[in-house]
Amino acid sequence: MVADITLKSISKKFKNNTALANINLTVRDKEFFVIFGPAGAGKTTLLNVIAGLYLPEYGNLYLNGVYFNYVEPEDRNIAMVFEDYALYPHFTVFENIASPLKSPKYKESKAVIEKEVTRVARILKIDHLLERNISELSNGQRQRVGLGRALVRTPNVFLMDEPITHLDAKLRHQMRAELKEMQKNLDTTTIYVTHDYLEALSLGDEIAILNEGKIEQIGTPDDIYFYPHNEFVASSFGEPEINFFDALVTDDKQLSIFEEAKIQDIPDIVKNKLDTSARSIRVGIRPKDIKYSFVKENDYSVECSVYSFEPLGAKAVLTVEKNGNQIRLVVPSILQMDMDQHVYIELDINKAMFFGPEKINLFSKFLKDAKGEVIWQS
After folding, report:
1. pTM for the whole thing?
2. 332 FRET partner, CA 20 to 30 A, in 7, 22, 325, 339?
3. Given this model, what pLDDT does residue 366 score?
4. Which among 36, 374, 3, 28 has a CA at the least distance from the CA of 221?
5. Domains detected in the chain
6. Is 98 helix (H, G, I), strand (E, B) or coil?
7. Nearest residue to 280 via CA among 353, 362, 346, 357
8. Is the peptide bond before 240 cis (omega within 30 degrees of 0)?
């Protein structure tokens, strides 16, 4: 069944606190749509509005163009999976997955239940566990059972609220791949909530960035990572976090970031976007795009002191200090630098992002507003 979801100007308050403010988005049929944001951004509230558990104060919800605000949750054919499995501990895996089909709403025959439970269990690769008790399962297996229970009644829309957050890093990586494959096999519209940027980038066909109840940007993973709409989006994706520098723009539209370094020439596409009256700009550069050396190699190199050195296997995060500001780089861990050691850094300005007034990105390949419409294109 086709399942397009459209939210128009959705707002939700709890007493005097605004949880959602003017949310506009469209989730296309069979799309894996990710809602990303920090704790308290309004992600779960948005899922609950879609599921029918909360009624918005303002705005409209549509499923396939049909007004859906007052449709009861049980009549929406929407399945929801939470971080907490909420399984029946005294039931077997089969009985847990089958439980929705035995409810008064469905009352399926024994043959149908057997067929559907087996189908879903095979998709989730737990068909060999059907007779086991929940207490005998690992966390990853229990999560699959929770997914199976939601999937067994073939919902129009699948809502997932941080379903793998509590799993260990290795299992989360494995489950990300399996969730994406599962969604393709089921051919079901999926809306997935997470605060983990890796989950958002790896799972989402499109991503909506939610912050304090408002949408900051909607786009593909490439849109979000390479062309962030503002500093909040840029700093939310990537580890170590992106570096920001205050810079001065010269009369001939060149860039001065460090007083003792040679003035940087700005790419032409950025020069064309600069306001001639602007004298300051914010420059964002990811840690991987900053070079290091132990001697001053050219006039663009700047001397810094080592603030911290964090080995992470083959790579390490080097944090240096300059004029009271901390700057993060990614370097080989074999370097083993010491505190207060002097090093030189050089910014790769051709890989920089440029942010103007209100911390908005000055240029993007293409930029979408909260309604998903392209508002600027190079």
Report:
1. 0.87
2. 325
3. 45
4. 36
5. 5-236 (3.40.50.300), 243-376 (2.40.50.140)
6. helix
7. 357
8. yes
Residues near 348 by Cβ (< 8 Å), separated by ≥ 6? 285, 289, 290, 291
d(CA 22, CA 44): 16
Give the residue carrying structure tokens 């991987």.
288
Q: What is the CA radius of gyration of the chain?
A: 25
Q: How many residues does the chain have?
A: 378
Q: Mark out the alpha helices in the chain (DSSP H runs).
A: 43-51, 93-98, 110-123, 139-151, 169-186, 197-203, 221-226, 231-236, 268-271
AA letter at 160: M
Q: Classify strands 280-285 and 342-347 as parallel, antiparallel or unpaired.
A: unpaired
| Cβ contact 367:375 at 8 Å | yes
CA distance 340 to 247: 25
3-state secondary structure of 315: strand
pLDDT reported for residue 370 = 46
Sheet holding 58-63, edge to edge: 17-27, 5-14, 58-63, 66-67
Residue 100: other Cβ atoms inside 10 A: 20
- The pLDDT, as a whole number, for residue 182 is 80
Burial status of residue 138 (CB atoms within 10 A of its CB: 0-12, 13-18, 19 or more): exposed
Q: What are the angstrom distances between the C-alpha of 225 and each of 47, 73, 128, 231?
A: 24, 35, 40, 11
Return all residues near 146 (Cβ < 8 A) that are at least 6 apart: 81, 82, 85, 86, 87, 163
From 231, 234, 279, select the one nearest 254 (Cα to Cα).
Answer: 279
Residues 244-277 as b or e (16 or more Cβ within 10 Å = b) = bbebebeeeeebebbeebebbebeeebeebbeee
pLDDT (tens digit per residue) in 305-325: 999 999 999 999 999 999 889
Q: Which parts of the chain have pLDDT scores under 70?
A: 1-2, 275-278, 363-378
Chain-centre distance of CA 304, in angstroms? 33
